[in-house]
Every structure is written in structure tokens, then in C-alpha cells.
Amino acid sequence: MKAMKLLLPSLLLLGLLSGCWDTKELNDVAFVTGVAVEQGEDAKFKVTVGVANASQLNVQKSEGNTPSVTFSLEGNSISELLDKMNVGLTRELRFSHTRTLVIGEEVAREGISGFLDYLERSGQFRNNFTMLIAQNISAADILKTTFPIQKIPSLKVHNQSSTLFEQWGGAPDMKLSDFIAALTSRGRQPVAEALTIVGTPKQGQSVENNKKLEPESLITLVGLAVFKEDKLIGYLNLEETRNYVWTQDLIQTTLTVPCGEEKYIDVRILNSKSTIHANYDGETPNFQVEIVAESFLNGTQCKDNLEKIETYKKFEKDIEEMVETMILNTVTKVQEEYEVDIFGFGEVMRRQHYQRFEAVKDQWDEQFSKADIDITANIFLRRAGTSNKSFLTEDE
Amino acid sequence: MGWIKKILLSQKSYNQDKSLKHEQLSLGKEAPPLSKDLKENQSNIEKAFENAKDFKIENIHVGNREGMICYLNSMTDTSLLAEKIMVPLSNSSQQDRSITNLEEFESYRKEFFSGVGYHFHDKLHGLIDDVLAGYAGVIVDGQPKGLSLHVGNIEYRPIEEPSTQTVIRGPKEGFTESMDTNISLIRRRIQNTSLKFETMTVGKDTRTSVTIAYIDGVINEGILDEVKKRIKKIRTHAIFDSGNVEEYISDKNMTVFPLIYNTERPDSAAANLLEGKAVIIVNGSPFVLIAPTVFSDFFEATEDYYQSFFIGSFIRLIRYASFLIALTLPSLYVALTAFHHALIPTDLLFSLQAQREGVPFPAVIELLIMEVTFEILREAGIRMPRAIGQTISIVGALVIGQAAVEAGLVSNALVIVIALTALATFVSPIASFTAAARLLRFIFIFMAAVFGLYGILLCLFFMVAHLVSLRSFGVPYLAPIAPFIAEDQEDVFLRFPFFSNKRRPHYLKTESPLKNPESESPTPPRSKKGGGS
Amino acid sequence: MQRELVEKISLTQLFILVSAFLFGSAIVVGIGGEAKQDSWIAVIVACLLSIIPVWFYTFLLSRIPEKNLFEIMEIVLGKVISKVFILLYILYFFYVSARVLRDFGELIVGDMLVNTPIEVISITFMLFVAYILYLGLEVLGRFSEIYAPYLMGSIFAIGILLLFSRELHVKNVMPILPEGIGPVIGTVFPELITFPFGELVAFMMILPYASKVRYAGKTTIFALIVSGLILAYSSFVQIATLGPEAKLRSKFPLLTATGEISLWDFIERVDLIIIFVVMFGILVKVSIFFYGGLKGLELVFNRPYRAFIYPMAMIIAFMSIIISKNFAEHISEGISMVPWIIHFPFQFGIPLLLFPFVLWKAKVLKSEGKKR
Questions:
Q1: CA atoms within 13 A on the CB side of C36
Q2: Of A184, A246, A271, B337, which is the most buried if we count CB atoms within 10 A?
């Protein structure tokens, strides 16, 4: 009996030895850092993966070879293509560290929800990767353009966009999960970031590109791609993107505000917060967007005395006016040109006037395009750097 | 060739006869009472000590009678013998004392051997036992009683700094192999009549004395009785170290966790006595046992109490953390590198992957190779002659680690993992406790290799369930944590300042729960003198 | 054979067991999703409403003190009839523990160990459950005392980490009750009241072993309220992070929500670590149902329950696999069939049926006691 008791568990343990079902050693897998999807020539999609070549990232082991390798295949389903990549690559691909998904313009115009479902469902992807639309260029080229500091192109783009978002607000904070949330929401249309390559893409596809002070080609962010449902319908430029972000969750930005003839002040905006109040004025929805922010003066080209309260007040007024018109222009442009509610005004309406929204939720975008939008900015200029009076200020 | 045959035959009979009973060695085998006849007694004793080179027997005059004195010169201090016994015996004033009955024998002792420990014996084996323990046996013709006089003063290692539980600040004395010294080391720290020592003899052949020390009125009676009962129940022929006793009196042997605390430090023993625990001192062992023991005891060093409670608490938390590291770090390495790549931050992942390029083994094998290598080095470091031992262990580890990495057999990160694990293993103040982490680690690695994180969690669950089911002398092993006792948290993960630590641990169920009710925190007076409002 | 000792669990342990039991699978699979952004309200309502049945359970137990549900049945209904009911209950308890085990298996296989057979997960987990119950209820109690701080700590940490990752959007929870209380009530009955709260019926097997039986009922209700609030908090965090739609879409919303945590590019994908939290809750839940069933077997076959542990554990592991062919079947059974056909009769029907008999028997016993 006692022997049996010992024997049984040991037999069970023996069974485990046949296991290790999920083991994959680090040197048996390859990590995909970026995926690019664009229109195929012979099939629906052409998928390109950028795979990290880890040993080239290691200071000791690096031989100066490429830190990232790409490979493309064509087919009709992303999932199958991703598993088929070993046609050209040696190791099993892992997507847990994928940071960018670049979508070609043509594919985006036709609709992308088809493969987004796979990305959400598979569980292999972290859902915090950046969604990018390649404007005017082949999406695959994004994964191939080298950069000397961040060696892997897809990681470079990822860093670039999140830093731009944090520092200046020129990129939306749109991850896969946010994109899908916007897609499913009746009161909001999704957006994605747009990017392009400056220079000649072919030149950038080599480690040699890293050896130049001025890279032959460089990936740059150009603004925002506007979607209607899952289809790309247009773009906003960088300024407009910042204005869009301002209505959402801007962290900080810098403005150049005119203070006189051909003269400007530079203002750093911090701690911005936007609140939206929704209302129905008869049949037209109207929204009051209230922006409260703190700011400090980075520099001035004007002669105003910065030791005087009046100067501060004047500057504050200038900034507020500028912000208000700027944002309003962008909103109006979206209303007139694209007629889609990328700002999520519908969601605000749903939160604040649930019944009214429910009644029109299927035609919300029409409602949005005829809505009255009112922007009020409330900017506090707190301080002006480390010096008091500018040397430009003449003594009176 | 006859002798070989003889040995083989004896071996055979040993194997065949299952009913063979273990016979006690010569000692006390036949225990005749002491007779009145000196010659008979003498021949009996000589027979008992036949072939014992260190045995000495001399014929002397005791008073006006014939007598004999016997002793083992290996166990006695000959100068003491000469001074305390031989000089009085040869004193001319005693030559005419008559010893005709027991009273006279007794008054003779009072007069000439006062101040010397003694026993009277009616049985020969009692006398022999005393002689074996370093007494001188004195027999007088015509008396059916033997007198044994204590002249034992065996050379022991002097009191030195403990070699295992070293401290930076705190007493540097350690226990020695001599029980008397050990008792005195404790007594010096607790000068109180409530401190009791009870001695028993354990081991049929070695006859080792085992002393239980406790504080009367503090220790729980039930626990004390249990300790005594278990020591009495030991049925063995030999006890050489407290480790032997520990194995016999533990609640459970099928566990890698030590259920009895051992220490080389008298201050630790004294502190534990005052908490309400029993201390078991085994003659010949510099490690005393402390019972009952709970899990958290192994994370407490005496030094925690000698320095500021902030640093004391901090270091204690570090110890708990290092126990977890020692236990799980290698298995986490396996689980992360072979299963859950997603959990590793991207940059670290690429760094690890670059290191692993070209390593021929799976992570588990890589790890096991290095773990076993490390254990070998460690063992070699201990067993080797001290002069080379330490250098070998450190240099060996470095050299082998470095060489293995350069040869591309293992990755750099792995060497860091092994090194950190090894360091963390030795943080626990008690060596016997580290064995638990060292052994369980391999099970963790195995499970991590099969199931990844799930395996590690499962192992942790099994381990905690096992820990929780353990008891030490009836006290749950994880006592103040599970079952949770809020009052006892003062001295578990953190070391609270003394003024707030007024109670003895609840789980010891002491007879007097308060230890220093009057202690106060040194604060400035709250109100002015005489100032009521 | 081992002799059974009288085991006691302290009130703290009881509190922790009840809470962990309620978190159990409820915290993983996501409850009250049908009430959309108001599911946290639904959880609170259900929690408060289920004070009534729980109070009823403790009242029933207090009539005939120091006896568990099955022993009461035996006293009240007689040996033969009670056996039928006890066997039914045993089946119920084993079935529910198999279901909970399946939830866990799906979680591990779906997210962590994709290629590992679910059978292996079930068997290894049941081995552990068997081991801890073999060591006894007391050990289970103390075991949970060790893990409870981690469980609670992690649940709160999720919210805080999400807040720091700027993923917690309170606006997702708005508007509150846009369509009135209707959808909330719709989720409370029958879903929430039976799962997880009604399942506390299993504690009718545990409560008599509390060290201070007098306070056991109050402790249970207190634990019920506290864990109801924590469940509501967790539900709130899930909605605020994911939004009601994504929460409803997700198989394991808590995991999906924690997946959003991203701090300093270092703390990422903590959802795998959450599995640990879940594992503890599941463990308590499976163990308590399993223990209830085992106690029933002990009574029916008159042998110590430890004799049944290992075989029954393996049977439950097996059951958890054959219960349903795929995940969809597993979930739809859980929503449409289980509450009505299985949960209601066992959680409310039979106890209510017992009620008059118990009252009558208690009176008889009392008057007998007086005569003596």
C-alpha cells in the first residue's frame, strides 16, 4: 500500500517528462518587431514582417550586420501568412514584442476590420502597438528604413510616435484596443497615425544608411489618417493632429503665438485638460469644448515688459484666441470635409444625453457634421523661464 | 586465513538470525552489587576495564583500612587528582581513622574530600559509569559502597567566536563542545533561579548527557513535558551531535525544512529561553537546539536586536526576499526564457537572446549544469583543507563561470542568475535552513521546465501547503502568519522597537505572557512638571 | 486508515475562505456583463440581495448546532430519504467544482500554455487540491491566510497600475443607469444571484467547523459584503479600462484589462502574473465544493473522506474535460442551463424545502433536551 502510494505520483511525474509542450528556447524563436500589410499584386494582402536580429543589437557580439531582417509573402489571410513566413525565415516567429503595424494606403481605403479581428483574438500580440498608415509609400519600406540610434526600424517608429505624442501632441495615442473601441463605438470614428519616408526609400534599406550624418531616407510622421468605420478617407496634417489631440488628452505642446507684426512668442503648454459639454439645441447638437491649461513662456521676440501683469494678461489673451480658432478650424474642417466624428463628441452626447443619442445613434455622423461647436480656451501663463525682463525690453 | 572465515561467518549469522537482539556493549552487562571484599571488587573492575590503556588502579590506605582508587587518566585532571585526593589520603592525620561503617565513611569524606563532587554507589556499574565520566572511584575494604569523586577536567576547545552565525555587533562568544561550559555561558546571561537545567542520558552505548534548559514559570508546561517525553523516548545506541537528537525528536522527518532551530550563540539561546522556549544542550556539540521553532525564527539573527530597529527590520525583509530568490530565481529564468517571452521587456529580451545565440543546451540543461557545478564547488570548498578551501571555492566559481561563458556553453545572464541565487541562499542565518531552498530549487526548476510559470506557482502552492501542515512541538510552523496572530506581528517581518514589544509570542502559550510591560519609548515629557490643566 | 480529527477553522480563515471563494472564478470570467457599463452596480445589488439567502443558510444551521447540511438532512429526513438528497448534492458539488476547474483550464490553455493539453492542467491542479484536502480543512484555512494578502493586494494593484498607465477612463462607466434599473435586475436574476453568490451554499458544509460558531454567520455575511464590493471594484476597473463592449467581448476581461498595463516600458504583460491571483481563488472554490462532496461521501459510505480523495479528484479532473466539447458550449451551459436547472434547486429549493422540517425537528430536540 505504502509502495503504491509512492509509485503512483512518480509514474505521474514520468508522464510529465513527455511534456514541455510549450517550451521554446530563446534561440529557437525570432521576434517580430513590426508587421506591414499592403495590397498584394496577385492576392488580397502582401504581408511583410520585420524580425529582430538580436545578436547585432548586443554591443559585444555585434559584427555590424543588419539588426533587422524583413520578409514578404502574399496571400488572402494575415494569420496564415504569418505562420507561413518560414518559407523564407528560419525560426518560429513570435509576435509578443511587435510594436508597429503599418498598413498600406490601398488596404486601408478598402477596410481593415478583416484582419484586426485576428490581431485582437490571437492573444499573441500585445495590444499596445502603434497603428500606422503609410502615406504614398509602400508599407513594407517602413520596416526597411534604417536609423542609427534605434537600430530596429519598427521600434524606431514606435518610439518616435510616442515621444511626439508626449512632447508635442503631434500623434494620437491610438493603440489597437483604442482603435477597435472607436470602431465599435457609435459615437466615435477611429483615427490612426500617418507616416511617410523622406528621401529615397531604396537608399535607406542598408546599414550603410546609418553611417551618414544625414540619412539618405528617413521615416517621418505626417499627421493623422481619418477613418470612416474601418475605411481610410483622408488625412489631417501635423498641426491639425495636434489640435485633434488637444480635444482628447494632450500632455504638453509648444505654440508659436503672434504678439505683434511678424513677432512671436513661444509658449510651452502644460497640464492641459479638455472638458466637453454636450447639448441639444432643438435638432442641432451643440458642444462646448472647454480647454484649461497652464503654460510658460519659452521665448519672446516682442519688447513687452515681462515684469508687468498687463503683459501676462495680454499674452494669455493672445494664446487663448489662437488656441480657440486653431482648434475650431480643425473641427470645422473635419465636419465639412470628412463628416466623421473622430473627436468622440457622440460618446459625450451618449454620456450626457443618453436618450437623445440613442435616437440618432445610427446617423450620428450626419448629426456631427451639422453640430455647433464652441471652443473656449482658458490658458494660464504662469512664469517666463529663468530671466525676468527680456533684454529686448527697452527701459522706459 | 582463519580470521577471514571468522569474520565472514559472524557476518552470516548476523544476517540469518533476524531475531538477533542488539546487545549493549560490555558496560553494565553484568551488574553485580559491590561486595564487601575489596579483592573481589577490584577484580571485577579490572575485568570491566580490561585492555583499557588509560585505566589506572592503585591500592591505597583509606584511614586504617585497605582500599583502592581507580580512574581513567584520559578523563581526569591528574593535578586535580593529586591535589584533591592523593594529598589528603597521604595526610598522616588520617592514617588512624577507622572506617567500620557507612557513617564513618561519610564523615571521612566530609573531612578530607569536601568541595569535591561525589556519589555513593551500591552497584558496581554505577561506579564504573562515574569512572567513565571522569570520576575517581574509591573503594574501601569491608564497605559495600563505593565513593566516586569528581576530578574530571577534560581538555576542551576554548570559547571561541562562533564559526557559523557571525555578527558584526554583539557578543562574540560561541558554544563549545563541553556541556558544562555551555551551561555556564547561558547561566552567565540569565542570572535567575528560574533558569532550570535538567539532564538526561541518551544513547545506550555512548551515554551522552543531554540537558534541557528552560525558564520555569515562562515556558508552557505542555511543551516542556513534550520535549522531555521525546528525549526520553529516544532509542538509539549513539548520539554524537545535536543533529542526531534533532532527528529523533522532530515532529516529522519527511520534510526538508528544519523543525528545530539550532544555534551556536549563547545570546540567541538565552533570548529564546526568555521567550518561552526550551534549549536542548547535547554534550559534545557546540550547537544547541531550540524548541519549539517556527518558520520566521530562521529569518531572525540576534544582531537584529542589537542595532536600530529600522535597519534590523530592513535586513530582515532582505532575508525573506533572498529566500524567495534562492528558491525561485533559477526556475523563473527557465520559465521566462523558455516559455513566457512576452513577459520580458523588449530590450532585455534582445539582450538575452543575443547571449543565448550559439548556446548548445536548452535553458534547463544549461541551468542544471551550472547549479550542479556550483553545488560541487560549494561542497569542495567546505571539505577541502581550510587553507585552500576558500580560495578554491571563490576562484573556481569565477573561473568556471567565466570560462563557460567564453566557451559559449552558457550565457552571461545565466551566470548572474546562478551567482545571485547562490548568494541569496546563504543569507539565512541558520545553515540547516538553506538546505530547504537548495533542494526545493531543483523541483522548482523541473516544474518550470515542464509548465513554465504555472509550474512554479503549483510548486509554491505545494510548498506552502506543506509548510502550513507542519508543526513543531505542537506549534504550527508558520505560526504568527498562518494562523494569523495580529499581536505577534511585532517580531516577524519587521522588528518593532522594544518599547512596543511587550508580549511573549502568543503561539508559545507561555505561562506569563507579558515580558516587559513597563518599557516605554524614550520621549520628552508630555506635560510640564505638575502641570495638569 | 487515518483517523479523522475534529478540525476547526478560525473566523479570520473563514472570512478569507468566503472571500476567495467568491472571487474564485467570478473575477476571471467577468460577471454581470449583460448590464453593460452598470455591471458593477449589478454586482453590488446582487451582493446585497444575497445576504438574505446566506442569512437563511446560517439560520438553518443554527437550529441544529454543530451539524453540517448533510448531517442535518440525515437527522431531519431520516437515513433513507436523506441519502437520496445527499447523493444529489454530492453530484451537484462535484459538477460545480468540475465547472470551475474547467474555467481555470481554459484560462491557462487559452492564454499561457497554448500547446499544453488541458487534461494535464486539470490533473495537476486536482492533485494539488487533493493534497491540501488530504492535509485537512485546517491546512486549507491556514494556506489561504498566507495567500489572501497577495490576492487582495493584486486586485487593488491592478486598479492602481492601470491608473498610472493612464488606461483607466472613468468616462467609460458613464452614463449610470441610462435605461433604468431594468437591465441590472435582469443580470442579477438569475445570473449573479446564483453565480457567484448563491454558491455559498457549499459553506453549509464548512460553517459548523468554525471555531466560534456563534459568529460564523456574521463573519460570512461580512465577508460576502466585502467581497461583493471588491468584485464590484474589479468590475468597475474592467469597464473603465476596456469599455463595456470590449469587456463583453473578452473571454477573461480581467486579464485583458491587466494586459493594458504598461509602465516605464518595463511592467508589461502582467496579465500572466494575474493568473496567480486567479489560481488561488479557483483553488479555494474547487476545494470547498470538493470538500462538500467528500463529506457527503463520508456520510453515505461511512468511511473517512480521505479514502475518497485521490480517486474522486481524478474523476473531477476527468469530468471537467467531458463536461463540454468546447468553450462556447461551456459558457452557454453556464448561462442558460446551469442557473435554472442546477443552481436554483440546490441553492434555494432544497434548503427551503428543508426549512419546515428543520424547525419542527429542532423543537422536538429542544423539548427532548428539556425532559432530560
A1: 13
A2: B337
